[in-house]
Amino acid sequence: MPEMTTPLVSIIRDRSKIAGLLVIILPVLLVTIDNTILNFALPRITMALDPSAAEQLWMIDAYSLVLAGLLVTMGSVGDRVGYRRLLCIGCTGFAAISVAVTFSQHAWQLIAGRAVLGFFGAMILPATLALIRTAFEDREERRLAVAVWATCLTVGSALGPLLGGVLLQFFSWESVFLVALPFLLPVLMLSPMITESEKQPDLSIDYLSILLSLAAMICLMLSLKHLATRGLDSYMVGYALAGILLGAMFIQRQLRLETPLLDLKLFTSGVFSISIAVNLVSLGLLIGFIFFATQMLQLLLGLAPLAASLILVPGQLLAVVAGLAIVPVAQRLAPHQLIPGCLCLAAAAFAVMALGTASALTVAVAFGLLNVAVAAITSVSNDLVLGAVPAERAGSASSVSETAYEVGVVLGTTLIGGAVTAWYRLSLALPEGAGSEVESGVTTLGGAHALAARLPTEMAAKVLVTVDAAFRQSVTMTSAALAVLVLLFAYIAYRNLRRAAK
Prior knowledge:
Blueprint: H1 7-13, H2 15-49, H3 53-81, H4 83-101, H5 107-135, H6 139-170, H7 175-178, H8 180-190, H9 207-229, H10 234-256, H11 270-300, H12 305-311, H13 313-330, H14 335-355, H15 360-387, H16 394-427, H17 436-441, H18 445-452, H19 457-501
């Protein structure tokens, strides 16, 4: 009898396929780790560079904003120049900028570096997915490689806080950027073992669409950040109107172009549209949670970075289990039952944060619930996205799904982080006798703790009690609002998926 081999065994026996799998896994892990690792380093960076509340949000968002805005574009560039070449350029640039960012002396330098990292990161994600077809011709092997690729998206985001906690326990904040080197250098060494993808040198790229999409996203993010840090004023309204206008111009242009940058016709499928929305919202919830949970663990509860990261380990392990265990469950339950159920689990996570006391156990339980929900949603929604479109449009659908992932990262930090910042600002009541130095130094929790180290003991104690209470209140109010909103969104998803199924 001929020997039966599974796709995994077949890949392990072939060195070129192992190399191909590593070339796919390592950069995807790095790009997604970079989405969350800076959240854990933010308290240290705040003390070192003294950024404003808005600059803190931009440190997180600059990377994902550029990455989301250029993913579809870089997919078109890869079609022209070849995806292996695009991957090598992206990895080389990412490694070089990661080293350069460690020399930042001011907040704006770090923000600019993060934006450039997003530019090179946008080259990496589409290239890895496209190279799967080149490296794995067998259908079953390719299916396994795609499953590994999708799992890395969730695992990388969950791994960021743990890796950040370990590094910050022994090294300075600059170490979170140098982590790129051990991930990317092996990719550059192994990439020659993968065959280059087919090139389409005559393919055109609409640069005006790129500018319109980026400008629209930046204006909308500026309006949301301004609302969170300065309140409602003419600048915030101006940014919002500019973003809406530019977004409308982008949509109109895509509808007129023969080969649009973003194929809006995909959204005529109800299943596709709601799956993209669910993917975006779930990742936003995870990133937003990490944004305030890391500050709560390190600043409010006073845990060392390593101890704080270990609190999140159970949730990270549950994410891996849930991402694989959901496959047989999805064969028994319809999407209109499964996805709303997972969203209800995410709502429960924020309800725990709203109703529980500010403790490490509360954060661990909430993070575990949220990770199970997001990991399950990511697996199911991506399967729905690809199944909702014809095979010849699967590439465009994947680009839209990846873009939604990164937009979710941006909105999670901007909306949830902005809400926490706004509630913190409204809840803050400084003690009597606090001077102008204290008023300007407590706009963020990290800044307040850094300031307290320089104040007289009695005033420092009063300031810390005040800011800690304000931050605790902001997390409670934001979590309560999110629990209600996610339940509402779960109902909307249920109605739409059920209607699409009929």
